[in-house]
Amino acid sequence: MDKDWKNRVSLRDLSPREYMYFPKGVLEQSKPGEFSLLEITHILIAIGALSIAFSFSLTKNSILWGILGYSVDFNRLLRGVPFAIIGVLTAFILHELSHKLMAQRYKLWSEFRMYLLGLLISMFLAITAGFVFAAPGAVMFRGKPRIFEEGYIAAAGPIANIAIGYITYFILISPLDFYNKHIGFICVINTVLAVFNLLPLNPFDGIRIARWSLTIWLTLFIVSLVLLIIILPYIPLVSNF
Questions:
Q1: SS3 per residue for 143-206
Q2: Active site residues
Q3: Pairwise pLDDT comparison (175 vs 150), residue with the higher score
Q4: What residue ranges do the domains of the chain occupy?
């Protein structure tokens, strides 16, 4: 490891309040696939909080839906839990881990850190209004990558979502008639997340990809947008509890 490693800047701007994200002893370069105990803790908390939020939102068990005439139904809430967990694991967590592994490939220190306020807001909005504002956290990097490396790191997350979206879509239309709500939900949530993250705006991945290669950004955005248009008929089916 070079001597200037700890003096390099982070790709993500961090405030002084986020010192806990870089505790002493965890800034050493790690091998691809390595996780610290702190990182695993943050991942598990993010999975739990987002799963709770999506469970309330998907099953219309929020306070607002109650006012509109939907009664609070604990059994309906439980039916939504598997969908919520599958969605969080295949979409949000795999998205972030794809960023992490690509960054580690380029020998950058890289770990996921939850955004506690974002998770609390997600749960609050889901329980009260039935809407999930998914801000679980982000993968933090330390190092100074070249522009193409930063582009690859940014693209890794949306590419993972696009791949999962297309794979599950082809399962849905296969002659085996394999359709079920779980596969459909995985397809929908990954596709929506891919399109959302490819918007060329800060702080989304799309802006970093576009700075590196407009051609690659446009290709990924079109591919994800086409899939979103194709799967629109499935959205009501996977949200019917």
A1: CCCCHHHHHHHHHHHHHHHHHHHHHHHHHHCCCCCCCCHHHHHHHHHHHHHHHHHCCCCCCCHH
A2: 96
A3: 150
A4: 34-144, 145-241
Does a cis peptide bond (omega within 30 degrees of 0) precede residue 203? yes
d(CA 179, CA 234): 10
Residue 5 has pLDDT above 50, yes or no: no
Distances from the Cα of 115 to the Cαs of 18, 79, 102, 119, in angstroms?
10, 27, 21, 6
- Which two tokens mark 232? 């629109």
For residue 229, what are the CA distances in angstroms to 163, 179, 186, 224, 225? 16, 18, 16, 9, 6
pTM: 0.81
Measured CA to CA, the distance from residue 240 to residue 203 in angstroms comes to 32
What values do phi and psi take at 141, rounded to 5?
-120, 150
Q: How far apart are CA 133 and CA 128, in angstroms?
A: 12
* 10 band by pLDDT with thresholds 50, 70 and 90: very low
Q: Please tell me the predicted confidence (pLDDT) of residue 141.
A: 79
Rounded CA separation 19/100 (Å)? 19
- Say how many residues make up the chain: 241
**Res 175 pLDDT > 90:** no
| Buried b / exposed e along 109-125 (16+ C-beta atoms within 10 A) | bbbbbbbeebbebbbeb
